[in-house]
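Morning run. Coffee first, then this:
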Amino acid sequence: MARMLDYYSGGQWLGSNQRFTDLNPADSSVWADVADADVSAVQSAISSAHKAFPAWAALSHSERAHIMIAMADEFKRRQSDIVDALQAEAGGWFGKGMFETGYVPEVFHAAAASNYAPIGEVMPSEHHKLSIAMRRPIGVVTVISPWNFPSLLTSRGFAFPMAAGNTVVIKPSEETPFTGGLIFAEIADAVGVPAGVLNVVTCSRDSIQSVGNELIENPLVKGISFTGSTAVGRQIAATAGAHLKKACVELGGKDALIICDDADLERAVGAANFGSFMHQGQICMSVEKVLVQQSLFDAFLKAFVKRAGALQVGDPGKDKGNVIGPLINDKQVAHVKAQLDDAVARGANVEVGGNVSGRFVEPTILTGVTPDMLVYQNETFGPVVPVIPFSTDEHAVAIANDTEYGLSSGVITQNERRGLAIASALDTGMCHINCSSVNDEPHIPFGGSKSSGLGRHGGRWSTETFTETRWITMDRGARPYPPVF
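And here it is:
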């Protein structure tokens, strides 16, 4: 029986005459019936957050930190149920759900810890004033989160701003309204977060445009956290800029894994297999190009094909051994299939996989991929990856940088000095030596360059984004004024 899910505003659960269905992507069954909030509902949630802001910001840093820790504990208590929901609502493998639900409490812990860090500095003054630069929360922050790692990416978007004293309004993806939003409303309600501090509004795809505009343009909103596609992120950043609002947008990627001729083969294959196919490749920092030095190419490809071919495809809710679950919806399947068909039509070779059945796409490895193919140019966000040979380190860097994106990257080499030189030449916000491009920790500066985003989520970087710097001085009577005054 489908769940009935309402939205959460001002500390209350509110229904709606308009509803939308939340489907299990594996079998299209209705997992939940969800309230479809309209613009007036969003305005009310923002107003509630605005009213709650002064009292929340006035709490001591330790009081807010304790609340974040309580939310972490409550999330951990519900881990088993949330893993089930991540499988049913988002099509995730059991292991992916365990990772995500283990990660989220650490986000809250890191946010709580950030409250004990310095919030300013004392600066020298020409006139012997006490001159202080300090940070304070900005007010209402809206969080628009995606469906691929819904709990992780939503928590990352709101935990640090909320810990710093801001109030939040979350709009989760219509594909994952529970695991990307309403679960946090339930947790906030359970641990006694003051009414209005955390609000969650859910809406259907038909309402996204009007609801999204309100979440950005409403004059009470002072900051926007967005994780999603580059096309939408550009619009959000542009609109926020026009209204002089702070925004942190983490967008798409076309990440490369560079495997040098001195790489440990086993490590390289593991990094490629995990980075390319974890959660069906539906990760912003998935490996989307595997670049292998020519002398290692044949040996690597043989091992990679064998490893990828062993990954089990199927409904993760029915068998924990099904590592490759469904893509999130038919639109995403069509996008991935279009890239695959285009590559084959232009001469690429399918080394393993290539079959599409409903929303299930086999882990697919391509060779013979050239720059004119869609799979080379565009973000795939699916379990299809080209393996491309390179001659020199400079050649590898050129291929990796040959994209509008610049999110993450990986370099596999036993020479760390060489790896650091390659990493320094890559146009990415992040690079991981002897690991895949898929890496994240709650306290680090997560984000990209070029079309992969603006700003950084995580740790003090998130706190800096969603606070403002103020200069305050205390004069001790030493500054003279011109005699005419």
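The mean pLDDT is 97. Good start to the day.
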